[in-house]
Fold this protein.
Amino acid sequence: MILVTGGAGYIGSHTVKELLRAGYEVVVVDDLSSGHRQFVLTKHFVRADIRNRQALREVFERHPIEAVMHFAALTSVPESVADPGRYYDVNLLGSLNLLEAMRAFGVKRIVFSSSAAVYGDPEKIPIPEDHPTRPKSPYGKSKLMFEEILADYAQAYGFFFVSLRYFNAAGSDPEGEIGEWHEPERHLIPIVLEVALGKRPYVEIFGTDYATPDGTGVRDYIHVVDLARAHVLALKRLERGGESKVYNLGIGRGYSVREVIAVCRKVTGRKIPVQEGPRRPGDPAVLVADPTRAQKELGWKPQYTTLEPIVETAWQWMLKISSKTFKCP
Ligand code: NAD
């Protein structure tokens, strides 16, 4: 059985779906602080905070756990700058509790949700895994510190880990069962789609004077189902006895904010007003992954290699949750 922390969240729930599809049994631990109960697709669910040691121990006592996928975290860069204590408490201390529970029960394999935020300002594009890591926020630092803790646990206690550094997760389950649903929403594509729906008056573009072709920031958008599949491949690698490793997950191609808005206009057929504003402190001009290592070593091949079909799945989900008949239990 696989323990998935944060399995009621956006990426965790899509990964649970892929794990179940691949024939794994799954138990989800999530405190539902930002996740949704209805996103938990397995019958084994424990509502608990990963900072609660006793609750974690009980999960390991009651379930035959063989490996862990660790998504549970606080995820906002600006929030982490304003309140670093809270971020280190959940993302570091909570994660350490999890490792200690694993150690107590002899579970040694873990796949960890890391982030492109570990790199900081890129020195070159696309960004390979051996690029210097200089995270600029407590969020990014918490991810890098935990990667380092994992390396220490591997060395001292014989743990095996895969850290997956995601670029920008986007899109939703094409079957419409689960999707991206954050309150408040902070990611560009759902924000643009909320404007298309009339839920927001305009999209604010943060910075139009970057050294990019159209002056707006460029990011690498990876479909959440492609991310989820990479997790299953990472787990299989660990099961085969593969060594501990770090992988980038992105499609290796960037889209500017203006390009994202143009694709959203095309997919929705709706007007999407914009308002141009100043840069946000700390936002790099371009973040694009070099995903070659994951492709070669995990055998991972993203199915969504352009933005339009990614936005299409996000739009179908957005229409579903905005419809009058949709009920949030
Ligand atoms: P999310 O907020 O949708 O999911 C996080 C889940 O963790 C939620 O269900 C939440 O309820 C749960 N959680 C939070 N704190 C908890 C705690 N103390 N105890 C138990 N459960 C807790 O976020 P997401 O976008 O699905 O991100 C998942 C992971 O991927 C995170 O670790 C995030 O840092 C990482 N990540 C996400 C992106 C992205 O583009 N979304 C990019 C890079 C990395």
